[in-house]
Amino acid sequence: MTPPKSSDLGGRLTRSGFVRAGVVSAAALSAGGAASLAPSRARAGAPSKGTVTRYPLHIPPATSPASLTLDEAPARLDLGGEQYSNVLAYNGSFPGPSIVASRGDAATIKLTNHLAEETITHWHGMVVDTANDGGPKLAIPPGGTYDYAFTVDQRACLNWYHPHPHMLTGEQVNLGLAGAFIVRDVEETALGLPFGAHEVPLIIRDATLDQTGNLQYKPRTGGFDGQIPLVNGTRSPYLAVDAGLYRFRVLNGANARIFGLALSNGMPFTLIGNDGGFLETQTAVSRIDLAPAERLDLLLSFAGLSVNQSVMLRDLRSGWDLLEFKMIAPGTGGVPTFALPSIDKLANPVFTRTFSFDGMSKINGKLYDMNRIDFQVPFGQTERWRFMTNGNAPHPVHVHGASFQVQSRTGGRGTTYPWEQGWKDTVLLEDNETVDVLIRFDKFRGDYLIHCHKLEHEDMGMMANFQVI
Ligand SMILES: [Cu+2]
Questions:
Q1: How big, in percent rounded to 5, are the helix, strand and coil portions of the chain?
Q2: CA distance 304 to 466
Q3: Cβ(346)–Cβ(439) under 8 Å?
Q4: 456: part of which helix (H) or strand (E)?
């Protein structure tokens, strides 16, 4: 493997990066998923571009959060077809290792910064105290470390982790730093959902490669707009499937792009969960619009396809083919009905706060100031938070420290969607919309953040500190 040039990552590749690049092998990357199959050739979806060579979907390695060491460092990895790219990676993996924990587990994680700039890691969706939340105030310098110690104590769900340093989040996430954080619990176990090779994480994002094939971050004030899709860090991926039931754990890991997910044969997804875990009822939906940082828990059965028949996961917004499902072992089957757990409903808010996402960099007229607390929220109080905008949406609104329940959307699209039921931590706000949610902080007192999860807006200052008191 050719060592990367120091200029390949915007001049950021450090000496340690050269060393790490040398030890990252293609074999390490292709160890997961359907790696034993030769690349398939499949017809490209609309718009037709002839044939596309497809590569096995990479499945990141799984790890426990107990005594976990996470290194953020430059790496050189195969994105498919032995096309190597300089990326930033957690533990040399892009996406980072999937952290899998059960409710009640202790997470003890040492983060080490091998980047040439400050960083810190936030556990998106994990309800933890301020010292473990990974906000920008906790950023560590190059060579620094940060020790996290918290108890995983929330419903089964798909969360994720990514850097959160002030003004550098967009760049670091875009260059590869993100991974899944899966929480399990007894309610989930009782359902008997698909697992092992039939439970598949799908981290979907866009990317731009420079002329030498390296990830390139070109921010725009309207949000990063990549030229190709990547699923689990694989370009043009396919997944070999059989007739068994599949559970897909989907994350929109893009900086700014919204995906309009659908299947090429019109088959609906069976939606069973989102950001905060299971919904109360499973719903068949043929299209899902997923904003950055939102998650989905989907069931799919490919029974009925014959050998070598394919179904494509598509993005109806860009027209991209995201992932080909290719049948290798046909049979009969379907999607059974699961008795999903019930959800306690928040009700009777005693206070309403309004947040206007102004322009591309302000909330309620203010740019983010790391040292300013913008408001205080009484512990245990149920509140209505109203999200509005004066333009420049979409703004995917994300809150740290608690999940919320979406109540209504007026103006704009004028409705809420099945994937917005239950518990959420990120909700999409489009122009002319007002979105009301109910929220209650009843786990920890301390400092938390509300921000736009279009990472370019966040980095420009569309973020506020608040305090739970
Ligand atoms: Cu925004």
A1: 10, 45, 45
A2: 52
A3: yes
A4: helix 455-460
Q: Decide: 17 and 114 in contact? Cβ < 8 Å.
A: yes
Quick one: CA dihedral 468, 179, 424, 453, positive or negative? positive
Q: Please give the C-alpha separations between residue 249 and each of 159, 160, 202, in angstroms, as whole numbers.
A: 10, 11, 6
Contact indicator for 175, 77 with CB cutoff of 8 Å: no
116: which residues sit within 8 A by CB, 6+ positions away? 12, 13, 14, 142
Q: How many helices (H) and strands (E) does the chain have?
A: 5, 33
How many C-beta atoms surround the C-beta of residue 227 within 10 A?
A: 10
Q: Which residues are within 5 Å of ligand 1 (an ion), measured at CB?
A: 395, 452, 454, 457
Q: How far is the CA of 358 from the centre of ligand 1 (A)?
A: 8
Residues counted in the chain:
469
Q: What are the CA-CA distances from residue 207 to residues 85, 229, 327 (Å)? A: 12, 6, 28
Q: Token pair for residue 275?
A: 């950001």
How far away, in angstroms, is 258 Cα from ligand 1 center?
Answer: 12
As given in the structure block, the two tokens for residue 178 are: 């993100």
134: left (phi > 0), else alpha (psi -120 to 50), else beta? left
337 CA → ligand 1 middle, Å: 37
pTM above 0.85, yes or no: yes
pLDDT higher than threshold 60 for residue 20: no
**Selection from 440, 441, 388 nearest residue 411 by Cα:** 388
CA of residue 364 to ligand 1 center, whole Å: 13
Confidence of residue 280 (pLDDT cuts 50, 70, 90): very high
Q: Find the 219 Cα to ligand 1 centroid distance in Å.
A: 14
Can you give the C-alpha Rg of the chain in angstroms? 21
Confidence class for position 35, pLDDT limits 50, 70, 90: very low
